[in-house]
Amino acid sequence: MAKISQRELDLEGVERGKRKYYRQIRLAMDKGHESTTNWGARMTQSAILPYSGLLSETMEKDTGIGARLLASLGLEPTVIAMMAFQSLLDGSSKGKTFTRACIEAARSVQQEAIVKALKDTDKDRFLRFKDFVAGRSDSRKLRNIKEMMQKTVPELVDQFAWSDEECLKAGYVLAMTAIEATGLLERITFKRSARSSVSTLVLTKDAWDYIHKAMSHAEMLHPIKLPMVVPPRKWVNPDDGGYEQGVGDCLVRGSTKVATASHTKEAMPLVYQSINLIQHTPFRVNAGVLAAALQVFERRIPIGDLDVHDELPMPVAPPSLKTDFKLRTDEQIRTTRLYFLDASRVAEYNRRINSRRIGVLQTLNLARRFAEEKDLRFFHAAALDFRGRFYCQATGLSHQGSDLQRGLVEFGLGHVIPKQGEAIQAWLRHGATVLGKKGTLEERANAAAALIRSGEADAIARDPADTASLWGKADEPFSYLAWCLDVKNVREGKPSHLMVAVDGSCNGIQVLSLLLRDEVGAASVNIIPSNKPSDIYQAVADRTMVRIEEAVRRGETYAAEWKALGVSRGMVKRPVMCLPYSITPRSAMMYLKEAYTEMHRDGPWPDPARPCGFLIRKVWPSIGEIVVKGSEFLAWARAAGRIITAHGIHPMWVTPDGFTVQQSYYTYDPSRVRTTLGREAHIWQIRNKTAKINRRKHISGLVPNLVHSLDATAARETARRLHAKKVPDTAFVHDSYLVHAAFQPVLAAELREAWVSTFSGDPLGDWVRQIESQLPVGVKLPPPPAYGNLDIGVIRQSKYFFS
Fold first, then answer.
1. Alpha-carbon distance 333 to 336, whole Å?
2. I need a surface site. Which of 73, 315, 491, 673 has the fewest CB within 10 A?
3. At 116, is the pLDDT very low, low, confident or very high (cuts 50, 70, 90)?
4. Of 452, 514, 4, 545, nearest to 230 (Cα)?
5. CA–CA separation, 59 and 72 (whole Å)
6. Closest listed residue to residue 185, CA positions, set 210, 212, 172, 204
């Protein structure tokens, strides 16, 4: 009997969520950033319309200096209202002097006008400055850009120069208008002594009442969901299953009301059967991996996800930084710019390191707690996204998490692996795969067997901490360590708890090739049987290098450097993998920039934007040469999406096993507030839903949502088939299926049957007919690309379809 009770875990999750929520609120208030809290954002949104209305009237009719100054900025009243109200709200919970509040509000509006002027007159310079300050707070962004402008374009800053007295007068108009229009702020004057008094700007009683109600409501909305120590409740309707009610998510996250009405057990019994099977798989903590991870973390050994200790040193500032900008030579300007780019890159890297360190500590602490209870099994309550994909609701210790988490988690029940046959071969291949070995099935199995014969696997298992240099070089070091620790169990005929995975081969393109019966695309992603695995990523990288060599002969800029660096499969993997998800050349270039920064920290370009722009012009046609039908399909889908959105349709379809998907992306009414530099999306909007649909999101989301709904269908079908074959434990990470090695032969056969079943008939034609039934009478979608001659049944003979 476990000492940890589920009731305790549920209450702990709620309390941890509340503590986290109030910690964030307290931190924001201590820093004087009340506008960034959830209640501050809502107060701002509710205040903008009345505040901007009164402000517009005041600037139009008031002849005072303050109103004239505000009108001279050329900003929309809604922008002035939003910037000013945020500034006035910040610090108001503790009270700040009225004079200070007025000046700060005027300065924030003034800085917005200055930055907007830069954007309007010199967009390239603005974008460079914007990239440099990315990741900083809104107020700091504005302040830093203004400082850079004072050094580079002082004449632009001087256009909006205000004295302190002018700021006070403009701020007085902003503050008094906010007090009158919103009723959320008030000016209070009190005596400090017999001869002096001070005025402060504070929140009104009504505002405080709203804040307390908002916080008491929000504190319960974000519980920290932990793994369960009892089997999750079976799903019986869209709101009843998994965790106790009020703790977990609903069955389908992000679904529309229309689709949710179809998500009943009566409407889709097969889907309910699948998710209830998945979430009843027991897991446990791999004690050996946990002990090794704790030692490695304590010794600060940089391995995989535990490489979170050493921050990069900030670059040394060049002497030219102290030189007046107008007196700098071209070389000094270049040196200074490179310094700022390098400093920005280092700061972003260190920020990510700090964030990852927190996640690692949370994972290790959770694993240690669950491991302290002997023979404790835990479960993951599952949910679906609106396309039907499986997700674990708990995070921090899950097979859907990082490599560290995957290494720490193993099946709760063990099974003996036969010494001969396909099961032991699958177990060997898993070891080679997580190590990073490529090649045929036989080559991978032989590579793992050689590691066992050489004694390397046993040496790692005996002392993981002292052999960290051996297993730390693996592609997935903690998964490889878990395999090494399992070697002894397998050799001695003891039950193995290892989760052995098989992965789809660029699964998105597999789905497109099956939909279109495309033999060329199918061959590139291992649908068609072959003796050797196809590697579409390497194929694209090779074709790209051919194009780069041709560019070198033509003398194109950046070509020689890319030839020297080389283009690896890892560099092009994300652009290729994301092709079925409506990726554009621009977003693909961003992936190349990320890959370059990760792989070539000391590369020739501190700012790789233009070099990666050159590279995507070589990568993109290389992808198109391999995925010909897929590219045609994407173009067809965009045309179909334009017809769908033109008639105001939020497309809905039902998958082969009965799951209802509705793609619903709204646009918002025109009363939205744009700022030059805003949070996240760089926009503040009043989110009043209208009947208009978001055309851009609908068109770009059509293909990925269709692809994900079909790969999710195949995964659910696989789960049901494995249950029918008495396979006890299963887990899914989208296109990665995990079972015990002893049941890998069953998985290999059944997943192929599931995919054949899902794509038999004409799933694309069925989808088109469902969408056309929602369009006005007589409106048709354009004919999809011509089908190829691929026989879906060849999946059964393809060794590398999932491997």
1. 5
2. 491
3. confident
4. 4
5. 10
6. 204
Q: How far is CA 555 from CA 209, 501, 558, in A?
A: 69, 46, 9
Longest pairwise C-alpha distance within the chain = 96
In the block, residue with structure tokens 């090794």: 292
Query: What gap in Å lies between CA 79 and CA 87, rounded to an integer?
Result: 12
Rounded to an integer, the average pLDDT of 176-202 is 86
Beta-carbon count within 10 A of 704 CB: 18
- Could you identify the residue written with the tokens 């177990």? 427
Residue 701 sits at the vertex; the CA angle it makes with 511 and 503, to the nearest 5 degrees, is 35
- The SS3 of residue 199 is strand
CA dist., res. 658 & res. 758, Å (int): 12
Given a cut of 70, is residue 685 above it in pLDDT?
A: no
Helices and strands in the chain, H and E counts: 31, 19
Is 713 within 8 Å of 761 (Cβ atoms)? Answer: no
Model pLDDT for residues 53-104, shown as the tens digit of each residue: 999 999 988 888 999 999 998 888 888 988 899 899 998 888 789 999 999 9
DSSP-derived pairing of the beta strands 382-385 and 252-253: parallel
DSSP string for 599-637: H-TT-S-SS-HHHHHHHHHHHHHHHHHH-HHHHHHHHHH
**801 contacts 511 by C-beta, under 8 angstroms:** no
Give the residue from 574, 569, 567 showing the smallest Cα distance to 551: 567
How far apart CA 679 and CA 209 sit, in angstroms, is 27
- 661, 652, 662, 659: which is closest to 775 by C-alpha? 652
Q: Which helix (H) or strand (E) holds 170?
A: helix 164-182
- Kindly report each contact of residues 462-469 with a partner whose C-beta sits within 8 Å and lies 24 or more positions away, as own/partner: 464/288, 464/291, 464/292, 464/295, 464/296, 465/292, 465/295, 465/296, 465/299, 465/301, 468/292, 468/296, 468/301, 468/303
One-letter identity of residue 27: L
Instruction: Give 588-597 pLDDT, tens digit per residue.
Output: 888 898 888 8
User: Do 185 and 207 contact (CB within 8 A), yes or no?
Assistant: yes
Task: Give the integer Cα–Cα distance in Å for 528 and 533.
Answer: 10
Written as one letter, the residue type at 674 is R
Tell me phi and psi for residue 241, to 5 degrees.
165, 170
**Nearest to residue 504, comparing CAs of 274, 305, 712, 703?**
712
**How far is residue 249's CA from residue 394's CA, in Å, rounded to a whole number?**
10
**Residue 449 above 90 pLDDT?**
yes
- β-bridge pairing 736-739 and 731-733: antiparallel
CA 100, 101, 106, 112 dihedral sign is positive
Query: Please, which residues have CB within 8 angstroms of residue 148's CB and are 6 or more apart in sequence?
Result: 129, 132
Beta strands 660-662 and 652-654, pairing class: antiparallel
Q: Please give the C-alpha separations between residue 379 and each of 397, 481, 547, in angstroms, as whole numbers.
A: 11, 23, 50
Residue reference for tokens 């023979």? 375
Q: How large is the average pLDDT for residues 99-126?
A: 87
Could you tell me the CA-to-CA distances from 231 to 39, 227, 722 in Å, in that order?
Answer: 37, 10, 19
Output the CA–CA distances (angstroms, integers) from residue 78 to 110, 169, 671, in the order listed.
14, 20, 9
Q: What is the DSSP string of 295-345?
A: HHHHHT---GGG--S-PPPPPPPPGGGGS-GGG--HHHHHHHHHHHHHHHH
Residue 773: both structure tokens together: 């039934």
For residue 437, what is the DSSP state?
-
The burial of 337, by beta-carbon neighbours within 10 Å (0-12 exposed, 13-18 middle, 19 or more buried), is given as middle
Confidence of residue 668 (pLDDT cuts 50, 70, 90): low
Ramachandran angles phi, psi of 732, nearest 5°: -135, 140
Burial group, residue 407, by CB count within 10 angstroms (0-12, 13-18, 19+): buried
Instruction: Judge contact between 733 and 507, C-beta under 8 A.
Output: no
d(C-alpha 284, C-alpha 616), whole Å: 44
DSSP state of 94: T
pTM: 0.84
Alpha-carbon dihedral of residues 326, 331, 332, 333, nearest 10 degrees?
60
